[in-house]
């Protein structure tokens, strides 16, 4: 019979969200039926060579702009209601489990989508796991941002020059204004 500390806690956490702790599997004690989340977690933990037992997965209805997040200090993974009801919630779970694995392997100072995390995602994708992160084949294929236009604001009297991303008609030449002139600037679009 399983003691109280051996059971995987399922219930409500402090925020009122439903939670489930992923059990650690040992050779002596194998749970009879693992859920999809626990099975996925164990497969990825084995692939990445990291221990993810004791990780709590929580559905958080308060997440509106974020699909999911990993809280390393609490060892808790929070998933929004929309992501939990999505067509492929396991893709979001793989993404977030990679964050948990990166913290376990490299410490809490690892960058959220840094090279260590990207290597874990790439390894999972090569093993056949689908993720919520579209990966680009190379750095050269990334599209560059279009350059924004720049505008030169030039004083016709003293040739004072100021540059901006947009036309600023209220700017004046400070030296000409100090001399009692209007200080109007001509605005030219840079090539």
What does this protein look like?
The protein has 191 residues and is α+β, with helices and mostly antiparallel strands. It is built from five helices and eight strands; from the N terminus they run ββαβββαααββαβ. The protein has helices spanning 36-48, 81-84, 89-106, 115-126, 174-178, and strands spanning 10-12, 18-21, 56-60, 68-71, 76-80, 151-154, 161-164, 186-189. The strands form two sheets. A five-stranded mixed beta sheet has the order 1-2-3-5-4. It is elongated. The chain starts with 9 loop residues before the first strand and ends with a strand. Residues 1-18 and 25-33 have low confidence and may be disordered.
Short description:
This protein is of the alpha+beta class and 191 residues long.
Number of separate helices: 5
Instruction: Tell me the Rg in angstroms.
Output: 27 Å
Low-pLDDT windows of residues: 1-18, 25-33
Structural class: alpha+beta
Range of strand content: 15-25%
Number of strands: 8
Strand order of the largest sheet: 1-2-3-5-4
Could you describe the largest sheet, including whether it forms a barrel? 5 strands, mixed
CA distance, first residue to last residue: 78 Å
- The percentage helix is 25-40%
Overall pLDDT score: 79
Backbone shape = elongated
**H and E order:** EEHEEEHHHEEHE
